[in-house]
Amino acid sequence: MSTHNHPTDVTVTGATDGVPAVFTDPGIPHHRDRQSDLHPAAEKRAERQVTLLFGLSVLGTIGFLVAYFTVPPGETVASMRLSNLLLGLGLFLAMFAIGIAAVHWAKSLMNAHEKAEDRHELRSSDTTRTAAVEMLREGTEDSSIGRRGVLKGAMVSALALAPLSVAVPLIGEVGEDWDVSKFKSTMWRKGTRLAIDPSGRPIRAADVTIGSVVHVIPENLSEAEHPLDEKAKAVVLLVRLDPRDLKEAEDRKGWSYEGIVAYSKICTHVGCPVSLYEQQTHHLLCPCHQSTFDVADGAKVVFGPANRPLPQLPIEVDDEGYLVAQSDFTEPIGPSYWERLR
């Protein structure tokens, strides 16, 4: 490691017209001392600031864990918003404060003298390796962590606790339900009426005009033990097309009714709700990553990262003219997961 404070001349081989054969290395700019370099009081103040930032990270992690266990999402939109807000604030404070503390430590307390390293062969010599070890030792001494006990304790505490804000939600609470088979079925059963979301009013086939789009839920959704969980799996998009525009597989020709088709609203990429329908092309767009499905052709993927069509809900009409399901979806809804190859 060498410090260059004087310019040097460098020869450029193969110089051409307009390019000088020799140019002057401007060297390292003049060093400007920081306040913490000049005044011990400023150095102590910077140390206290870094310690405070690490302390804020610890409080953020603790706040995250308290919110995780005492303010669960619940079953209402308001409770979900409150839980997400508290978790987000705790996670932000835990991670952001560590980052700011590290930057402030480096900028205000560590050695700020500019240094340059001369180019050398890719393979380091034994002497260079020994020098590298020595530089690491100097760096440890330069950080002054050995004589700053309070700051060291704050840093260790923040770094030790911060991973809990990620690990605890991944591990989950004791008794967490890991039965993934629940993702393979929804509330739809034979005879379940299709109802408008969110009013829950049943839908008559005669009320659905060509080109219209209806967001659909099971009529009996309110009777479920966990309505929001069931809705997240059972939401459907109902579209009516001109029957002449439909391209139906032989085994699915009985799944629609006079041009009315129903498909899962959950994108098969990462589970976002698809909802943007283009009437002229019959394309259904997912706003998250622009996966596009052709409703007229089995909701097959025509663009984007999704790798399989939207699952279709088989429908028919009951004696009173209401649209009802023939059965549940015949394949798992939503994105692929570890129990399914596609």
Question: How do the strands and helices of this protein lay out in sequence?
Answer:
Layout: E1 9-11, E2 22-24, H1 35-38, H2 40-70, H3 77-108, H4 126-142, H5 149-161, H6 164-171, E3 194-196, E4 213-218, H7 227-234, E5 236-240, E6 260-264, E7 276-278, E8 283-285, E9 292-294, E10 300-303, E11 315-317, E12 323-325
Antiparallel strand pairs: 1-2, 3-4, 4-5, 5-6, 7-8, 8-9, 9-10, 11-12
Helix pairs in contact: 2-3, 2-5, 2-6
GO cellular component, one term: plasma membrane
Protein name: Cytochrome bc1 complex Rieske iron-sulfur subunit
Domain Rieske: 233-324
Task: Describe this protein's structure.
With 342 residues, the chain is an alpha+beta fold. It folds into 2 domains: 9-118 and 125-171, no CATH class; 183-325, Rieske Iron-sulfur Protein (3-layer Sandwich), CATH 2.102.10. The protein is built from 7 helices and 12 strands. It has helices at residues 35-38, 40-70, 77-108, 126-142, 149-161, 164-171, 227-234; strands at 9-11, 22-24, 194-196, 213-218, 236-240, 260-264, 276-278, 283-285, 292-294, 300-303, 315-317, 323-325. The strands form 4 sheets. The chain has a 4-stranded antiparallel beta sheet with strand order 3-4-5-6. A 4-stranded antiparallel beta sheet has the order 7-8-9-10, with no helix packed on it. Strand 9 (292-294) and strand 10 (300-303) form a beta hairpin. It is elongated and about 90 Å long. The chain starts with 8 loop residues before the first strand and ends in a 17-residue tail after the last strand. The model is unreliable at 338-342 (pLDDT under 50). It is a multi-pass membrane protein. The chain crosses the membrane at residues 50-71, 83-106. Residues 8-22 have a biased composition (Low complexity). Residues 28-41 have a biased composition (Basic and acidic residues).
